[in-house]
Design a protein that fits this description.
By secondary structure, the chain is mostly helical. It has one domain: Growth Hormone, Chain: A, CATH 1.20.1250. Helices cover 72% and strands 1% of the residues. The radius of gyration is 21 Å and the shape is globular. It starts with a helix and ends in a 7-residue tail after the last strand.
Length: 420
């Protein structure tokens, strides 16, 4: 999309506005997603949203102005917010705390493989033609098949449908700020990287290869980081990734100044292996803290925080490139990443947390889904009865106390299937 817009004469600022429209649509979709899932269920929600997304992509073949691109990207933001809430919420509801980081890593690995292969497809058609967009629409339509034909029981529809960023911030501030900072940084870098590559003298194919390097680095690091986060305070992992992102951003600046294409590719791979893995660790950290019944609301709140960052991040990233030149994008990345690291370090010093332990009972694939669901419903009924004196607690994240995660060691039964 950025290469298509650039070929049609749109400026870097216009491309940044279109990227911001995606974030704005995404943040709106975060409010709609939990209620939509509650009314139609996970499977029907995914199927209908994927169909809408496929149609919107076809509409992009007729976009020739900044306004048209912004409207279509806003619509994709709404639909993708709901789709990601479905997938993230489904997996998080079925995962156990002691394995959540690795399970989310498997899901993200599948996503990263697709994101790695996708930029290579730019060479299969003309940027000015419509064939590439038609292919994307076809693949989105095909994604309906395994979901529509699945025999797997979906998790119970969430009772809580509200996005409560403030309450989640009280319980897990590192996760909320981390998701917001990820949006601030990852949004503009992913949206503007092809333009950055062309601006420093790379061909369109090599500029697209930078996106491949980003996702390749993320793919390699996703599982090890998930494994590591399951064995330590996840905030240490978030801080380390943020600090590493800041350092690698500076290295990319040096490599681009020297004109070494290999060094630039390696720098983008390292950047992707750090920056693109932060969000999944934030999700795992927040889900360790809240009650199982608030998982979908929590994921939606984190997606909203991320979307706010994605909405304003491309504007600042494009502004930095206009003021400083192409390398301003990674000066901006270095500053924001360093600020995130500093915030997490302060939080760790204020409130140490033990490593995540098993907070849920693992359901093996051979277990009976019906039995699992009945057990979950019984547990929910018991929790609801105990909270009958204060019905409003259903709408809050599971813990609003800053040290609630240290109390979350009591096992609770959960159900069994999805970056961010």
């Amino acid at each position: 999309m950025p290469l298509r817009m650039q070929a049609e004469g749109l400026s870097i600022s216009s491309i940044g506005i279109v990227a911001a429209a995606y974030g704005l649509g995404f943040s709106s979709g975060c409010f709609l997603a939990p209620s939509f899932i509650r009314h139609v269920g996970y499977i029907r929600a995914f199927a209908s949203l994927a169909a809408i997304a496929a149609v919107v992509v076809l509409g992009m073949t007729q976009a020739h102005s900044t306004l048209a691109w912004a409207i279509l990207r806003g619509l994709t933001g709404i639909t993708f917010a709901c789709i990601f809430t479905v997938t993230d919420g489904w997996i998080s509801a079925r995962a156990v705390s002691s394995h959540r980081g690795r399970i989310l890593s498997i899901y993200m690995i599948c996503t990263k493989i697709a994101l790695m292969l996708s930029p290579l497809g730019i060479g299969l058609g003309s940027i000015q033609a419509d064939g590439l967009f038609m292919a994307v629409s076809a693949v989105m339509s095909l994604s309906l098949l395994p979901i529509a034909a699945t025999t797997t029981e979906e998790p119970p529809a969430p009772r809580s449908v509200r996005i409560r960023v403030r309450s989640l911030f009280v319980a897990a501030p590192s996760a909320v700020i981390g998701a917001f900072a990820v949006g601030l940084v990852n949004g503009p870098v992913i949206a503007i990287t092809p333009v950055f590559g062309v601006s420093i003298g790379l061909t369109q194919e090599k500029s697209a290869a930078l996106l491949f390097a980003l996702q390749a680095g993320s793919l390699v690091m996703q599982w090890p980081l998930g494994w590591l986060s399951d064995r330590s305070d996840r905030r240490y992992v978030i801080a380390g990734l943020a600090g590493g992102t800041s350092l690698v951003s500076i290295l990319i600046l040096l490599a681009s100044a020297q004109g070494g294409e290999t060094l630039i590719l390696l720098g983008f791979a390292a950047w992707g292996g750090l920056a693109l893995c932060i969000y999944s660790v934030c999700v795992a950290h927040a889900c360790d803290i809240v009650d199982p019944g608030q998982i979908v609301s929590t994921v939606g709140s984190l997606l909203f925080s991320w979307a706010v960052g994605v909405t304003i991040g491309p504007l600042f990233g494009a502004l930095a490139m206009d003021l400083i030149g192409p390398r301003g994008l990674f000066i901006y990345s270095a500053v924001i990443s360093f600020a995130l690291m500093a915030f997490i370090v302060v939080r760790i010093r204020l409130l140490p947390r033990p490593p995540a332990k098993g907070g849920f009972v693992e359901i093996l694939p051979t277990g009976s889904a019906t039995t699992v669901l009945e057990t979950r419903l019984e547990a929910d009924a018991a929790a609801e009865a105990s909270a009958s004196t204060d019905r409003s607690t259903e709408e809050r994240p599971g813990s609003e106390e800053p040290d609630a995660s240290s109390q979350r060691a009591t096992p609770a039964t959960a159900t069994a299937d999805t970056p961010s």
